[in-house]
Design goal:
The chain is mostly helical. Helix content is 66%, strand content 0%. Helix 1 runs antiparallel to helix 2, helix 5 packs parallel to helix 8 and helix 9 runs antiparallel to helix 10.
Length: 312
């Protein structure tokens, strides 16, 4: 599968999913079969994007290269997310009134994507030379400060505002953990990724800047998607096909597009120029050079050295 096909397939699938989402959302379609089929489509899209991402890692020698490791782990994280999404879609058809997974097994599968994505970001930053940004003191301070701010905001809106503070801690432990865990994990990944690549932007080669920018945009969208889902689910306002799902779709589209743009092969195959025909009749005929035969020195008759009467 060449890079051109993967590139346009990601663009085509993502465009189709966004257009169908808009048709569902703006027609105010709620809790209908089309909503659930769209969720299945998003899960299958993420599955496809992860598979072609893993195929891209193979072109970088799998785990033998830094870029290969980064692409592989980011794609593996997307794969785990797609499995969780497809599992969630199963519950939509068995119990359409369900708005969140009744089993924490799917939550475990979903949240396992976060450490995989985190590993992929670190591997990719190291391979592209961007990781040195964390060696700076200001980079380390910036990561800590921004992470604390984002985690604090997540705690305030998801625990205090959406769930009334004390009511949040009355839930079972696993419910507490997953409600806040997604946003906290996303906040850490997004913060570290942004700081690493922002401080090392000048070091990145031209071929890496656009794909990495798209991947970073994906992590930012992921944070807002998980944040919005936890907030709206806590207030009982989430439904399948909401704006939250658009954010999730844009997230996996960014991952699929950015990762596969790191394919080392050329996007457009360039044909070598055809040779220019040579008209031999138009070329001037060269006159053959005159042959010069070297004459041996011994064959040249020397001047007569015989003594004569006149020389005496």
């Amino acid at each position: 599968m060449n890079k051109k096909f993967k590139f346009y397939s990601v663009i085509g699938i993502s465009t189709f999913m966004v257009i169908t989402w808009a048709a569902i959302f703006f027609s105010h379609t709620v809790e209908q079969q089309i909503n659930y089929y769209w969720q299945v489509g998003m899960g299958l899209s993420a599955l496809y994007f992860s598979i072609i991402g893993i195929m891209t890692a193979a072109k970088w020698n799998w785990l033998k290269s830094g870029v290969g490791r980064g692409v592989f782990f980011i794609s593996l994280g997307t794969l785990m997310w797609s499995i969780g999404q497809l599992g969630w879609s199963y519950y939509l058809f068995t119990d359409p009134s369900t708005q969140s997974p009744p089993s924490h097994l799917l939550d475990i599968v979903d949240i396992s994507a976060i450490p995989l994505w985190f590993t992929g970001v670190l591997m990719l930053s190291k391979a592209t030379g961007a990781r040195y940004g964390l060696r700076k003191v200001k980079g380390q301070i910036l990561v800590v400060v921004v992470s604390i701010i984002m985690i604090s905001l997540s705690y305030y809106f998801l625990v205090v505002v959406a769930r009334g503070g004390t009511a949040y801690f009355a839930q079972p432990f696993w419910k507490e953990f997953f409600d806040l865990g997604y946003s906290v994990g996303d906040a850490v990944i997004a913060t570290i990724a942004i700081v690493i690549f922002a401080l090392s932007w000048k070091v990145l080669g031209g071929r890496f800047k656009l794909p990495i920018s798209i991947i970073l945009a994906g992590f930012i969208l992921l944070y807002f998607a998980d944040f919005a889902f936890s907030y709206m689910d806590g207030r009982g306002e989430y439904y399948n096909g909401d704006v939250v799902d658009l954010l999730y779709m844009l997230t996996i589209a960014a991952f699929g597009l950015g990762v596969n743009m790191l394919d080392p092969s050329n996007l457009h195959s360039v044909k070598p120029p055809s040779p220019v025909p040579i008209d031999h009749t138009a070329l001037p005929l060269e006159q053959p050079a005159a042959l010069t035969v070297p004459v041996p020195v011994s064959s040249v008759p020397p001047e007569s050295s015989t003594l004569t009467k006149e020389s005496l």
